[in-house]
């Protein structure tokens, strides 16, 4: 009887996940396995044949300076994720209770997340224009005589993408945090109205721990989505100036579809996959230190 | 008073958030030579509706693109939210062997770079005869790993005793899922729907590779027609992009209603 | 490292893919117009799809409309693909799928070669009644792949310097007929004003014109198989371009061009740049006085050599728009008919946008007339005639995309002062050598 129930439970479990599992397997996992296989070949799309080249794509990878440079740029770009999550938390706190026109404000903050890439990328380019751009005009008016060259300089270009990305992800972070904040009882939030010291205390020691599972979710998904992001880089700078904004996903795209070197592109992807898994695993392990499950 | 100040402060930040959109809209009413003009002018000296008219009546048929995008995004979103909810329930409320291992595989699948699965997907769709049909976008669109993750976090947070008491009354997992969990999860489902819809609506790369016939094109693909041989028709592109945002805003406003309604009973928690 | 062929795996997948889709293929084209098929094959309507990078409204639509009217049995549809990475990817996947592509335009030799080796382009040599060398002239040879024509180059590539003649007259300068980069700088200094740059060039073409033009005879690879980008002439040319951006400041620096997506054509036509290193593609906008109002006369000069006494300099030119037939098309004969007609004058409606037919049987006078529109008085015809008919030795872009990108990345870093001249050249040589070792 007991065993039967277990079996039934097992079966029901599989039935629930089966539809999605089949789709994910067919459209993500199998294609991915195929491309891992390609990493050991020298296939050039759209040629009809290829040779096994063993590990040579990987031995090329470990010596490839462009790869390391792209990795560095990717990591700098990822810095935008925790900042955006942090800002999203603060904004959600305020937007949750203590403002008028909640709905209007929420919509305004969410707007960036729903935009089409190319058009808005162009706007960003103009905003960060070194001469006459609104950002540098503002900085000069504030008395900064030598503002950064932004997209025109190899040292600052990648940070423009951090700014764009904080802007883009913020709306998403806010609405997920808003949903999470509803769980917290209103006395806990009311308390925050009393005085400044208490407010900080409530936020830091009451609310922040309570939403920590959400924070973990946002960080993990944020890193994953960002690491895969290629479109804005292609639209705004296409990796330049020099190679200062070439991130791994763009490098993969160029290698595969500009140089038609599918084998090597697959090898870089495998490396990227390993990196994402590592970052995720670290977060998963570190969560015990700061994520509180009720 | 405090509420008033925070409202004002938030509005100032919100203005920064929508600044690029204002710019975009402003440019769509301008003349070509005004695009690069400096200092920047919000209102054109010679405002024109030409580009907005052109979106709807020009050689590129945005009405068709719109319809295609709507079709693909709506079917995909409904399917994706449903399949994600079912799977998330399985991953969070039913205990069975291998569950957590499978979920781990899911997480890894979420991390696979899109660029690298284009060609295998292309070969597969071509073999199945789905290449150059909307199914090549809709079918993969029905399955979202991130959605499963998101809803799982929500279902886990729902106290166990709710479903246990239902089970004692003789309800099976299917009826618990349909009658208890889904209604409770409305805000999360709405959130996922909004986010998922925006992915489909803005998806450019899949549409580019899998659709050949111009009558199958989507809005994001249609924006390409403003890329000329040696330059870009910025005014036209901004007008089309402005028009392209409208459905997304409507979806957000509808979705937000559900989020607000269901707020009292829900949260995304781990 | 033992190499095993896995060719059969990939071939299997693609063959499977093709056989599965051929049924689709049939109903998506070819059968739609069989209304009167009882009368035999002459009434069968063949549908062809022609892929090109020119926006439909800039000529191609008119071309296929004309053809379709004259040839009710062969109906051609034009599909525009954007000639960038993603657009080419779209074309290549379409070619692999065997769907909806019968005729396609190629814009660079490396891309054509890829398509030939993947079996996508039809060998044109069986169509022997049309002698490509004879029709198109010596420049056609540059499009040979493995000594065969897989594509028909149809257009004359014309690169030259656009000049603001009114500004030249004001400064008392004659229209140059043969000059060097140093002369360009001298001119630019004289033409520079507070609101106008002296000289500008498109970043991509600037490098091709100067470095590939200088190395066209020596070659970009030395005899020992290593990179030749450390040839002294490269450094000299690089330094000179840099000086024009940062020392004499007569050229807009590359950072400005890139970060504002500066439309150099609009700048030139708007009298904000006095001399523009460009080509025939400027004509479309130059003829459009509504969007680009212009009150000066445009004159033309040949491309500048890098240094005085550089006799092995070659001028960017040759032939372009190499049009191929999909080897998998079911109607290669009809496609060839269209292609011949296109090359021998059918393509004329594109002349207004600068595409002058290469074929000697196309009406050249008509092409020039279309090119100039009703704006003859807005062009200095004498100098135009000179650059169109000069017999300067030419070359064409032939470097692989990856090498072009390496060069742009490293040289750009020099132009924006992120590395020194020596570093830039060292890095290009190093990365080029790595590339050469791999391939």
UniProtKB/TrEMBL annotation, chain A:
<dbReference type="InterPro" id="IPR051393">
    <property type="entry name" value="ABC_transporter_permease"/>
</dbReference>
<feature type="transmembrane region" description="Helical">
    <location>
        <begin position="75"/>
        <end position="95"/>
    </location>
</feature>
<feature type="transmembrane region" description="Helical">
    <location>
        <begin position="157"/>
        <end position="181"/>
    </location>
</feature>
<feature type="transmembrane region" description="Helical">
    <location>
        <begin position="264"/>
        <end position="286"/>
    </location>
</feature>
<keyword id="KW-0812">Transmembrane</keyword>
<feature type="transmembrane region" description="Helical">
    <location>
        <begin position="12"/>
        <end position="40"/>
    </location>
</feature>
<feature type="transmembrane region" description="Helical">
    <location>
        <begin position="202"/>
        <end position="227"/>
    </location>
</feature>
<feature type="domain" description="ABC transmembrane type-1">
    <location>
        <begin position="70"/>
        <end position="283"/>
    </location>
</feature>
<keyword id="KW-0813">Transport</keyword>
<keyword id="KW-1133">Transmembrane helix</keyword>
<dbReference type="InterPro" id="IPR000515">
    <property type="entry name" value="MetI-like"/>
</dbReference>
<feature type="transmembrane region" description="Helical">
    <location>
        <begin position="107"/>
        <end position="127"/>
    </location>
</feature>
<protein>
    <submittedName>
        <fullName>Lactose transport system permease protein LacF</fullName>
    </submittedName>
</protein>
<comment type="similarity">
    <text>Belongs to the binding-protein-dependent transport system permease family.</text>
</comment>
<dbReference type="InterPro" id="IPR035906">
    <property type="entry name" value="MetI-like_sf"/>
</dbReference>
UniProtKB/TrEMBL annotation, chain B:
<comment type="similarity">
    <text>Belongs to the binding-protein-dependent transport system permease family.</text>
</comment>
<feature type="transmembrane region" description="Helical">
    <location>
        <begin position="236"/>
        <end position="255"/>
    </location>
</feature>
<keyword id="KW-1133">Transmembrane helix</keyword>
<dbReference type="InterPro" id="IPR000515">
    <property type="entry name" value="MetI-like"/>
</dbReference>
<feature type="transmembrane region" description="Helical">
    <location>
        <begin position="135"/>
        <end position="155"/>
    </location>
</feature>
<feature type="domain" description="ABC transmembrane type-1">
    <location>
        <begin position="66"/>
        <end position="255"/>
    </location>
</feature>
<feature type="transmembrane region" description="Helical">
    <location>
        <begin position="7"/>
        <end position="25"/>
    </location>
</feature>
<dbReference type="InterPro" id="IPR035906">
    <property type="entry name" value="MetI-like_sf"/>
</dbReference>
<keyword id="KW-0812">Transmembrane</keyword>
<keyword id="KW-0472">Membrane</keyword>
<feature type="transmembrane region" description="Helical">
    <location>
        <begin position="103"/>
        <end position="123"/>
    </location>
</feature>
<feature type="transmembrane region" description="Helical">
    <location>
        <begin position="176"/>
        <end position="195"/>
    </location>
</feature>
<dbReference type="Pfam" id="PF00528">
    <property type="entry name" value="BPD_transp_1"/>
</dbReference>
<protein>
    <submittedName>
        <fullName>L-arabinose transport system permease protein AraQ</fullName>
    </submittedName>
</protein>
<feature type="transmembrane region" description="Helical">
    <location>
        <begin position="72"/>
        <end position="91"/>
    </location>
</feature>
TrEMBL record, chain C:
<protein>
    <submittedName>
        <fullName>ABC transporter substrate-binding protein YesO</fullName>
    </submittedName>
</protein>
<dbReference type="Pfam" id="PF01547">
    <property type="entry name" value="SBP_bac_1"/>
</dbReference>
<dbReference type="InterPro" id="IPR050490">
    <property type="entry name" value="Bact_solute-bd_prot1"/>
</dbReference>
<dbReference type="InterPro" id="IPR006059">
    <property type="entry name" value="SBP"/>
</dbReference>
<feature type="signal peptide">
    <location>
        <begin position="1"/>
        <end position="19"/>
    </location>
</feature>
<keyword id="KW-0732">Signal</keyword>
<keyword id="KW-0813">Transport</keyword>
<comment type="similarity">
    <text>Belongs to the bacterial solute-binding protein 1 family.</text>
</comment>
């Amino acid at each position: 009887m007991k065993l039967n129930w277990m079996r039934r439970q097992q079966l029901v479990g599989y039935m629930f996940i089966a539809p999605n599992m089949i789709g994910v397997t067919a459209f993500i996992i199998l294609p991915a396995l195929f491309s891992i296989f390609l990493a050991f070949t020298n296939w050039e799309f759209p040629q009809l044949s290829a040779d096994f080249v063993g590990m040579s794509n990987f031995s090329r990878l470990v010596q490839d300076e462009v790869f390391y440079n792209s990795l560095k740029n990717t990591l700098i770009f990822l810095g935008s994720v925790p900042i955006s999550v942090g800002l999203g938390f603060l904004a959600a706190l305020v937007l949750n209770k203590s403002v008028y026109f909640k709905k209007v404000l929420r919509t305004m903050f969410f707007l960036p997340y729903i935009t089409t890439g190319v058009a808005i990328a162009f706007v960003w380019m103009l905003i960060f224009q070194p001469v006459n751009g609104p950002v540098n005009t503002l900085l000069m008016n504030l008395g900064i005589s030598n503002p950064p060259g932004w997209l025109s300089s190899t040292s600052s270009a990648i940070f423009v993408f951090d700014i764009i990305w904080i802007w883009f992800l913020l709306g998403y972070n806010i609405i997920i945090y808003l949903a999470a904040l509803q769980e917290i009882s209103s006395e806990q939030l009311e308390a925050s109205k009393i005085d400044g010291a208490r407010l900080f205390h409530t936020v830091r020691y009451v609310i922040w721990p309570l939403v920590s599972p959400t924070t973990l979710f946002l960080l993990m998904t944020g890193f994953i989505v960002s690491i895969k992001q290629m479109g804005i880089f292609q639209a705004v700078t296409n990796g330049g100036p020099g190679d200062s904004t070439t991130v791994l996903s763009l490098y993969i795209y160029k290698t595969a579809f500009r140089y038609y070197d599918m084998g090597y592109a697959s090898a870089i992807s495998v490396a990227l996959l390993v990196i994402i898994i590592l970052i995720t695993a670290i977060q998963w392990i570190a969560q015990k230190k700061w994520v509180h499950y009720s | 008073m405090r509420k008033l100040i925070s409202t004002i402060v938030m509005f100032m930040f919100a203005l920064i958030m929508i600044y690029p959109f204002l710019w975009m809209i402003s440019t769509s009413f301008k003349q070509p030579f005004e695009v690069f003009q400096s200092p920047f002018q919000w209102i054109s000296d010679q405002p024109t509706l030409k580009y907005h008219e052109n979106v709807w009546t020009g050689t590129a048929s945005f009405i068709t693109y719109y319809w295609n995008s709507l079709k693909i995004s709506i079917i995909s979103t409904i399917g994706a939210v449903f399949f994600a909810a079912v799977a998330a329930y399985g991953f969070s409320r039913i205990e069975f062997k291998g569950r957590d291992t499978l979920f781990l595989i899911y997480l890894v699948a979420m991390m696979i770079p899109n660029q690298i699965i284009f060609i295998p997907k292309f070969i597969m769709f071509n073999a199945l005869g789905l290449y150059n049909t909307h199914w090549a976008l809709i079918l993969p669109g029905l399955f979202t790993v991130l959605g499963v993750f998101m809803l799982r976090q929500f279902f886990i947070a729902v106290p166990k005793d709710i479903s246990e008491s239902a089970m004692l009354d003789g309800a099976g997992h299917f009826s618990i899922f349909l009658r208890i969990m889904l209604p409770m999860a409305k805000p999360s489902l709405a959130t996922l729907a909004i986010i998922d819809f925006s992915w489909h609506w803005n998806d450019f790369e899949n549409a580019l590779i899998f659709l050949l016939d111009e009558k199958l094109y989507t809005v994001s693909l249609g924006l390409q027609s403003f890329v000329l041989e040696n330059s870009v028709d910025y005014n036209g592109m901004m007008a089309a992009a402005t028009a392209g945002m409208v459905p997304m805003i409507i979806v957000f406003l509808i979705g937000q209603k559900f989020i607000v309604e269901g707020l009292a009973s829900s949260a995304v928690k781990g | 490292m033992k190499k095993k062929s896995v060719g059969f795996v990939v071939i299997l997948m693609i063959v499977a893919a093709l056989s599965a889709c051929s049924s689709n293929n049939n109903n998506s084209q070819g059968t739609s117009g069989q209304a009167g098929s009882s009368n035999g094959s002459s009434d069968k309507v063949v549908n062809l799809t022609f892929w090109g990078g020119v926006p439909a409204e800039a000529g191609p639509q008119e071309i296929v409309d004309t053809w379709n009217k004259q040839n009710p049995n062969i109906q051609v549809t034009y599909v525009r693909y954007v000639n960038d990475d993603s657009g080419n990817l779209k074309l290549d996947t379409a070619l692999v799928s065997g769907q909806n592509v019968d005729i396609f335009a190629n814009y660079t030799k490396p891309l054509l070669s890829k398509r030939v080796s993947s079996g996508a382009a039809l060998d044109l040599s069986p169509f022997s009644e049309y002698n490509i060398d004879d029709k198109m002239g010596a420049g056609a040879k540059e499009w040979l792949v493995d000594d065969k024509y897989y594509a028909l180059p149809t257009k004359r590539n014309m690169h030259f310097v656009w000049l603001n003649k009114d500004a030249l007259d004001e400064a008392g300068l004659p229209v140059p007929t043969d000059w060097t980069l140093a002369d360009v700088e001298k001119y630019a200094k004289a033409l520079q004003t507070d609101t106008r740059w002296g000289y500008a060039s498109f970043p991509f073409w600037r490098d091709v014109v100067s470095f590939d033009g200088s190395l066209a005879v020596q070659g970009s690879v030395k005899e020992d198989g290593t990179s030749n980008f450390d040839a002294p002439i490269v450094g000299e040319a690089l330094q000179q371009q840099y000086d024009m951006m940062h020392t004499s400041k007569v050229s807009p620096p590359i950072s400005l061009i890139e970060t504002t997506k500066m439309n150099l054509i609009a700048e030139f036509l708007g009298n904000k740049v006095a001399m523009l290193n460009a080509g025939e593609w400027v004509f479309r906008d130059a003829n459009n006085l509504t969007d680009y109002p212009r009150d000066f006369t445009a004159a033309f000069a040949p491309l500048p050599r890098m240094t005085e006494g550089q006799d092995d300099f070659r001028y960017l030119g040759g032939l372009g728009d190499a049009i191929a037939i999909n080897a998998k098309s079911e109607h290669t004969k009809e496609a060839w008919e269209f292609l011949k007609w296109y090359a021998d004058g059918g393509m004329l409606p594109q002349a207004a946008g600068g595409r002058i037919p290469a074929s000697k049987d196309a009406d050249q006078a008509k092409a020039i007339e279309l090119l100039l529109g009703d704006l003859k008085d807005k062009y200095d015809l004498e100098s135009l005639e000179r650059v169109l008919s000069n017999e300067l030795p030419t070359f064409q872009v032939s470097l692989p995309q990856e090498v072009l990108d390496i060069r742009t990345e490293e040289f750009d870093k020099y132009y924006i002062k992120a590395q020194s001249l020596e570093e830039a050249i060292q890095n290009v040589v190093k990365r080029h050598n790595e590339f050469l070792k791999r391939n």
